[in-house]
């Protein structure tokens, strides 16, 4: 029997539950490996919504996956509901195997593909998460709205050990047997500051566990230090499964315990989006639908200054310039620039979320949108709206030496006090576009109007 393995956000061969299901030996010939056609569909809708760096990572990861399969990866371009049934018919597939997708777009796409397949089953096995959305619920079956009780139940539910899969798990069909021509894998020429693909993900994780994870809890908020794992893009594209990572996380050690908590947050936001799909672009807390936001010409000018890293607030500008140049931003800085956009500039959080998705290599719908709603105060388990990050104090606390700011703002490279508390602003660096103290009071006024 022949199976079709449709790769999506799971661009690896190791610890791959859907591959294990697809390769399950034929009951009539248990000694033989099942034949599998490996394919990836370049959906024009997703290509259009991805920035050049995310497309670059995707392309690089696909090239490595194809290499790991000795070139036996079929890449086609078009609508999955048209192409997947054609491929299944061409190879007489008994089933199409996928990793389950829980995001709103993915669920609609898979429903359409399943309908188009007719009698050929679309078999979903595993997920991109440690615990799949929908499995962690209260005793009455309702979803959690607050992270801490979710975390307790999440630990109780638990997860399986990594699946023992690899290139030798199946007999891979030659793509020429599909009747489809190979599509050109994306290569927009964007520069990435991390390598893509399974081998790089495994190597990077091993290096982090060996050298830095023990200090993760105490140093993870410092953007001036190389203290984080930078695994977010690898998790986004599934070049590593979080179970592979969790296997190294001995909970008796503080740094590893803290890191596992971050993986739980990733699962929590995926669960929130799964249960409340409208929250992708709308306030989870609808009380915030009435809050006043600015969308006029001045608002657009301030937004442009924010995206360019020209606000006059050093930590904000450093983060926004890092994002534009690399497609990455440290999480502590993400929270600071998000608070600044929503509560100092009074702009809709959706403006910032959309810019992040355009720029980030690790742009993930659940994490991104609900991270923004946390900062805006309108999401589950959100920061109270009256918690307004002071961007200058955030810089003093988390970039105390100023090394992070100097790296990304050349105008401040020669300034001792990069937080600009005791020195004059150097030529070429803009004055603050707003008065933080005044805008904080304005943000609180707007909040009181809906309270």
Layout of helices and strands:
Layout: E1 2-7, H1 17-22, E2 35-42, H2 44-48, H3 52-68, E3 73-77, H4 80-90, E4 95-98, H5 104-117, E5 122-124, H6 147-157, E6 171-172, H7 198-211, H8 216-219, H9 232-237, H10 242-246, H11 254-275, H12 297-308, H13 314-326, H14 331-344, H15 349-359, H16 365-376, H17 391-398, H18 403-408, H19 436-450
Parallel strand pairs: 1-2, 1-4, 2-3, 2-6, 4-5
Helix pairs in contact: 4-5, 6-11, 11-16, 13-14, 14-16, 15-16
Protein name: Deoxyribodipyrimidine photolyase
GO molecular function: deoxyribodipyrimidine photo-lyase activity; DNA binding; FAD binding
Binding site for FAD: 216, 228-232, 259, 262-269, 362-364
The CA-CA distance between the termini, in Å, is 62 Å
**Portion in helices:** 40-55%
Approximate shape? globular
- Mean pLDDT across all amino acids: 95
The proportion of residues in beta strands is 5-15%
Report the count of strand segments: 6
CATH superfamily of the largest domain: DNA Cyclobutane Dipyrimidine Photolyase, subunit A, domain 3
- CATH fold descriptor of the largest domain: DNA Cyclobutane Dipyrimidine Photolyase, subunit A, domain 3
Round the Cα radius of gyration to an integer and report it: 23 Å
CATH architecture of the largest domain: Orthogonal Bundle
Going by helix content, strand content and strand pairing, the class is alpha/beta
What is the chain-wise order of helices and strands? EHEHHEHEHEHEHHHHHHHHHHHHH
Largest sheet: 6 strands, parallel
CATH class of the largest domain: Mainly Alpha
- Contiguous runs where pLDDT drops below 50 for at least 5 residues: none
Number of domains: 3
Tally of helical runs:
19
Cofactor: FAD
GO molecular function: deoxyribodipyrimidine photo-lyase activity; DNA binding; FAD binding
Family: Belongs to the DNA photolyase family.
InterPro entries: Crypto/Photolyase_FAD-like_sf, Crypto/Photolyase_N_sf, Cryptochr/Photolyase_FAD-bd, Cryptochrome/DNA_photolyase_1, DNA_photolyase_1_CS_C, DNA_photolyase_N, Rossmann-like_a/b/a_fold
């Amino acid at each position: 029997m022949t199976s079709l393995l449709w790769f999506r956000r799971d661009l690896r061969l190791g610890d791959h539950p859907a591959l294990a299901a697809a390769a399950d030996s034929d009951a009539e010939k248990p000694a033989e490996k099942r034949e599998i056609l490996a394919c990836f569909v370049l959906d024009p809708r997703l290509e259009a919504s991805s920035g050049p760096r995310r497309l670059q990572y995707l392309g690089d990861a696909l090239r490595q996956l194809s290499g790991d399969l000795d070139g036996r990866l079929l890449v086609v371009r078009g609508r999955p509901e048209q192409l997947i049934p054609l491929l299944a018919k061409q190879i007489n597939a008994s089933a199409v195997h996928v990793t389950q997708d829980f995001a709103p777009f993915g669920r609609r796409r898979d429903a359409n593909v399943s309908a188009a397949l007719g009698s050929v089953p679309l078999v979903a096995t595993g997920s991109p998460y440690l615990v799949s959305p929908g499995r962690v619920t209260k005793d009455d079956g309702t979803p959690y709205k607050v992270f801490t009780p979710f975390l307790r139940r999440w630990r109780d539910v638990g997860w399986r050990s990594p699946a023992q899969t690899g290139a030798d798990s199946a007999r891979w069909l030659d793509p020429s047997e599909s009747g489809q021509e190979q599509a050109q894998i994306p290569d927009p020429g964007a520069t990435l500051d991390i390598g893509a693909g399974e081998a790089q993900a495994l190597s990077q994780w091993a290096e982090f566990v060996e050298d830095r994870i023990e200090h993760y809890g105490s140093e993870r908020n410092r953007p001036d230090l190389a203290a984080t794992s930078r695994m977010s893009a690898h998790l986004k594209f599934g070049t590593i499964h979080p179970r592979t990572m969790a296997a190294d996380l001995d909970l008796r050690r503080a740094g590893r315990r803290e890191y596992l908590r971050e993986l739980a947050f990733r699962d929590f936001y995926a669960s929130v989006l799964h249960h409340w799909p409208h929250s992708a672009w709308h306030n989870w807390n609808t009380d915030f639908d009435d809050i006043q936001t600015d969308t006029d010409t001045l608002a657009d000018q301030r937004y442009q200054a924010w995206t360019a890293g020209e606000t006059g607030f050093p930590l904000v500008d450093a983060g926004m310039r890092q994002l534009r140049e690399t497609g990455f931003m440290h999480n502590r800085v993400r929270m600071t620039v998000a608070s600044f956009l929503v509560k100092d500039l009074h702009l809709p959080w959706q403006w910032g979320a959309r810019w992040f998705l355009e720029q980030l290599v690790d742009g993930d719908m659940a994490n991104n949108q609900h991270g923004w709603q946390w900062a805006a105060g309108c999401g589950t388990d959100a920061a109270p709206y009256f918690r307004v990050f002071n961007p200058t104090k955030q810089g003093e606390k988390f970039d105390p030496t100023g090394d992070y700011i100097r790296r990304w703002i050349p105008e401040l490279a020669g300034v001792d006090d990069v937080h600009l508390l005791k020195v004059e602003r150097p030529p070429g660096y803009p004055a603050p576009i707003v008065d933080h103290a005044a805008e904080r009071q304005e943000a609180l006024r707007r909040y009181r109007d809906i309270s």
